[in-house]
Amino acid sequence: MIARHFIDSLDFAHKGAELSGDMAVVDMPRLQDMLAAPDGVVRYTVRGLQGKDGKPMLEVELDGACRLRCQRCLEAMDYPIRQTTRLLLTPESELDAFPDDENELDSIAIDKHLDVEDVIEQEILLNLPFAPKHPEGKCQPAAEGMNRSADNPFAVLAGLKKK
């Protein structure tokens, strides 16, 4: 089990603070259902910063890997996690408002007790593919090995059609 890090998100951003560390994939409970194996480590850096307009933000940088299950062959596959996300710190009352600009940054609520590991896990979950697959030609579909002609119920119908 990991030691959790909690920050005052607004104070963290205003001070331009930085927090780095490693987090084992096995310590991310919401991610477990999507994994083929709980192997892997994700290195993270969370930075507090001010946007061009002076708004407080967090930058979350992730680098690591996890093992997902290929939806084509059902075998485990390594999936790289390399991403940088900027999160605008917004009062909770304004989170449901529609953004003025389509390029608006993702927002999270200002929190005096923000769980950093929870933010990291959430960012990974949001960026995983819906149906992970090996690159084309790297795996065989699970059903490909089945003998289709012998047990095909429509083979009888095809024979009747010829009569």
How would you characterize the overall build of this protein?
This protein has 4 helices and 8 strands; from the N terminus they run βαβββββββααα. It has helices spanning 9-15, 116-127, 148-151, 154-162; strands at residues 6-7, 18-24, 35-37, 41-50, 56-69, 76-90, 106-109, 114-115. The model has no long low-confidence stretch (mean pLDDT 85). With 163 residues, the protein is of the alpha+beta class. The strands form 2 sheets. Strands 2, 3, 4, 5, 6 and 7 form a 6-stranded mixed beta sheet that branches. The relative contact order is 0.19.
Mean pLDDT: 85
Task: Quickly count the helices.
Answer: 4
The coarse silhouette is: elongated
Helix content: 10-25%
In short:
With 163 residues, the protein is α+β, with helices and mostly antiparallel strands.
